[in-house]
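TL;DR need structure tokens for one chain.
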Amino acid sequence: MSNSLKYNRINKNTNPTGRFIVFVVFTAMALLFAIGCKKEAEKDPEPTKPWNPTAYELIVPQGFPDILIPDENPMTEEGVALGRRLFYDPILSADNSQSCASCHIQSHSFAENSRFSTGVDGITGKRNAMALINAPWFRSLNWDGSAASLENQAFEPVTNPIEMHNTWPNAVEKLKAHSHYPDLFFDAFGTTDFDSTHVVKALAQFERTLISSNSKWDRYLRGEVQLSQSESRGFEVFFSEKGDCFHCHSTILFTNNEFHNNGLNSVFADSGLFNVTGNPNDIGRFRTPTLRNVVFTAPYMHDGRFETLEEVIDFYSEGLQYSPTIDPLMKNVDEGGVRLTKEEKFNLLAFIKTLTDSSFVNNPAFANPFLDD
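>> reply
TL;DR here they are.
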């Protein structure tokens, strides 16, 4: 012990040059640190970018129901603009080859003109892509109602192995590494540390703008045009027990947003709503699509089995098949359907065509924004 203490005293007391060098070094370091702190203090504070989004005014067309916007996702100009870019950008897919717009094409009323969609790995699905038209009034999404909201639905395609086949962490990482998206997310949501929740909120905001209300039928209701004789007779077929279309395709939306077994099969390969609820009474029940812009959304039914509207009308006229869960609204199933005459079919089709809104499929506000860059 004494030797150790002595040794220490020798180092301290018998090496004045070493002590001086240490003193100089520590003094210099202290001065440099002080100068650096002073310069740092003299810098202007880093400016904070203000976040001041502009509220988006979503106009409800005359005669349409009120729109319910989720409190947690208020619509803004910036959010809609971001959602539109994300909708058309293949960056969300695993290999940057597929976007939402790949299966929801504006010229087809945001449906797809093929029977089934093909994903990034070349795998084909088993259902036809539903049209995104008048999306603010969707009470559920997908043919089986498996998504409760636009936000909820937007989560699925990114990770679905037969669609975009990506992971959300990977998709968000790509967006954060992008030259523009961090600023766009800040403009929309006030943060550059965004996640998948912000992505689906932006997509939903854009999709809620996809409103159609300028068909010939709408203009007729506004007193701007008259229906032809054939269209008027088709209206009578549609809204009477003769055609019996109105029970499911009711209201100004031309869908009741409910689920029906409409007599497509006697045995179902796809059980529809049953896959979600597990209720045997839901086997074969699928969500009722809108008939607005239906001329653009072929092929028809959940599995795209019908290529033309004429085939659809023929099916409801004489092609219904009985199954234990068939909807009671399919009253004439024993006769195959409502048994329309050739003239009634012609007039019914004429009326259905009055639901066509060409301005919707040509609206530049809904178009691919990258074509403008």
